[in-house]
Every structure is written in structure tokens, then in C-alpha cells.
Amino acid sequence: MRILLLTQFYPPIVGGEERHVRNLGAALAWRGHQVSAATLWVPGADAEEMDGEVRVHRIRGTLQRLPGLFVENERRHAPPFPDPELALGLHRVIAAEQPDIVHAHNWLLASFLPLAPWCQAKLVVTLHDYSLVCAKKNYMRDGAICAGPALARCLPCAARHYGAVKGVATATANLATRFFALHAVDRFIAVSHSVARHTGLADHGAAFEVIPNFVPDDAGRLGGPDDPCLDELPNGPFILFVGDLMHLKGVDVLLDAYAGLDGAPPLVLIGRRCRDTPALLPPNVHLFSMWPHSAIMQAWRRSLFAVAPSVGPEACATVVMEAMASGKPVVATDIGGMPDLIEDGRTGLLVAPDDAAALAGAMRRLLDSPALIAAMGAASLERVEQLKAGAVVSRIERVYREVQRERPVARRAGSGELFGGRQ
To answer: Nearest to residue 292, comparing CAs of 214, 239, 223, 343?
Structure first.
């Protein structure tokens, strides 16, 4: 098959989603498919290049020319509405690649939707977060899980997050794009049951499957020559957190829990500093920012166990799978996609979110039982085999084959059939 992946970011911009799309492209190409990717252009990058066997097209967008709109200059996101310049760029890529499948992964989908009536490819969309219904993408409102999309809730919530003008525009456009997407997408892939439930796929009769993200088959062996930053790690055993250093990831809750653990080994935090990264750290806490991925994988192997204390419904945490692939138990919150990955009492421990005492208790339980750490680590290695490329990519291929076999539906504008698609 000829497969075109749509992703707003692609390495050298690296995050969990970007790494997933790159790994997916490589795995599909290894299986004999002709794979290309369309992504946003970044300064210094070629308009077209080969990444292994994947042809990468970098396209420019009108909004990306306005850096003042974005909090992070290096991450100028695609908007949740059609950007004319991005749509034109996608048109050129599709004409050149002639894909059988267009597989979109985020808001770049919005700039493809106007092309759907013209494009003959089947459209598959992976929902890596809650952006189908949430302009903030995290499904949180006023510090709690949202009750669901509605203008009365979304407009003020987005305005508080982005600012009044940008927030109202983003939320309104996102709700409109959702309507079109539900009619145009041939199959949704939700990365967890939490994503499928909160985005209301079943409620709207959308065709979907729950398929998690994955880690490479050799994830437990990833790494290379010791990176110099590894010299900064504690010499002995330590507890490890990897992720954005923010409240949504539960970093402040983790620090409160750790401060109450007498005689605990060091706590290591590796991640991107954010506006709400705690300024004060308890004794014996080591904070490192933006390590290379190979060094992080080596840090997992040196750690005792992982902690993933998110207070929001994290969709499908790649760091959890990486820790499991390294043979480590995971202490995590019982929220979002965590229960899909972690079997409580077997591969790790699940606790209530935003509960420092419960988190401390779970960490203490592991610290007091090396045998339990070893048993859960072994179970994690067994469980993660179902979360590796060999198991997961074949499920995605099956989705491609199924949508190709389905009877074609004309995508046209009309009463109740805007952009056509499956009802």
C-alpha cells in the first residue's frame, strides 16, 4: 500500500507523538509499504528528504509565519481549522504520492479535510489525545476532568488557556472541525479506552478501534555509548520520573509524596521545564532537563522503578511502555489510559490521582520489597510484548486493509452528508 502519514511535527522536533509517527513509518516501510510523511516545515530543514525508507515532505503554513501566536517558537502548531497554505501544500504532496491511505495524527487533519472530496485515499485518524473535543487537548477544566464539549464550557475554558481572542477562535474552529471529521474519517484509532470514551466516538456512531501506541521491538535494548549526562545520575539505586515537569503530569504531587518518604533513595526527574515546574525541590531530588532519548532509556535500566503520577487523563503514556520494556514496575495514577497499560498488582501499582499519601504508600510498598520489584519487573517485560511494534503495527495494517475493502462512499457536500464518510 501507499501510505501518507500526516503529522504536524516530525524529528528533529521530538516528543512522544513524533517518535510514534516516525517509528510507525519505519515499521510500515520495513513491511514493504511505500510510506511518506507530510509535516510542518522548520527552519533549516529541506523541503523534502528521506528518513530511512520514508519520504518526508515539509510544508509551510500561513499561521506558522506568525511566531507571536505561539508560546513555544520551535513548536508552531497546526491550527484546528484549514490553513490555506497548508492545504495547498498537502494537495501537492497527495498529487505526488498518490496514497491509498492517508493516516492523520493531529490538527494537520483540519487542513486535509477540504481535500477529502477530491482525494481518493481512505482516511484513518489516530487520536493521541482529546483534541477531537478539547481545544486544550487534555480534557481538563478548572483542574478536573471535563464534563464534555459544549460551547458554554469550551469557550471560557479555552479563553483562559490561550487568551480571549485566540481561545475563542481555537475552540470554535475545533468544534466545527470535529463535525466534519466525524463525517469524513473512515476509521478512527483511539490510543486508549479513555480517549475513545471521552471523545464520544461510540455516541456519534463513528467507526473506531482502540489500538495503543507502541515502542520499537528493541526498546529494551535502545541506547548507545554512555552519554556524558549519565554521569550526573546518582551512583546507587533511584526512582525515576520522565515527562514534562508540570502539574498535569503530577510532578508537584510526586514531590509532596517523596518528601514524606523517610530514608528513600534519590528521586530523579528528567523532562522539559514548564511554567508551573516547581521551583523548590525536596532534599535528594535531582532534576535534569531535555536529555537525549538514548540516555533516558539507559536511565530507565539503571532505575528501581518508574513513577507516572498524572493528575489528568493521560491518553497513552509512552514513558510507561519504555519503563516496562526496561523491566521496571510502574507506580501510576488510575486515570486516563494508565489502566490500559498497567495491570495493578502485577506490572505496577495504580493509585488515585492527586493523592500524595496514596502515591507515597505505593512507592514505600515497592521500596520495602525488592522481591516485589523483581516480580513486577519480570511481569512488565512479559506485558510489554503486546505493546511493541511487532504486535501493534499489524493491528494498524489490518485497519488499512479493512477500510480499503469497504464500499466506497462518495464524499460530497449535501444535507447530512457533508464530506460524506461513514455514519
So the answer is: 223
Q: Cell digits for 83?
A: 490553513
Local structure of 194: helix, strand or coil: helix
- Residue 9, pLDDT score: 86
pTM over 0.85: yes
Residues 34, 1 contacting (CB under 8 angstroms): yes
Residue 11: cis peptide before it, omega within 30 degrees of 0: no
Q: Please answer whether residues 396 and 408 qualify as being in contact, where contact means their C-beta atoms are separated by less than 8 angstroms.
A: no
C-alpha cell read off for 172: 470554535
Q: What is the pLDDT of residue 74?
A: 62
Cell numbers at 63, concatenated: 499561521
Grid cell listed for 262? 523517610
Q: How many CB atoms lie within 10 A of CB 408?
A: 10
**In b/e form, how buried is each residue of 340-368, taking b as 16+ CB within 10 angstroms?**
bbbeeeebbbbbebbbbebbbbbbbebbe
Range in 35-44, 244-253, 263-272 with the lowest mean pLDDT: 35-44
Residue 206, strand partner residues: none
CA distance 45 to 43: 6
Classified as helix, coil or strand, 252 is: helix
pLDDT digits (tens, 9 = 90+) for 60-83: 988 766 665 555 556 677 889 999
Instruction: Return all residues near 112 (Cβ < 8 A) that are at least 6 apart.
Output: 6, 87, 90, 102, 104, 119, 123
80: cis peptide before it, omega within 30°?
no
Q: Could you tell me which residue, 375 or 221, shows the higher pLDDT?
A: 375
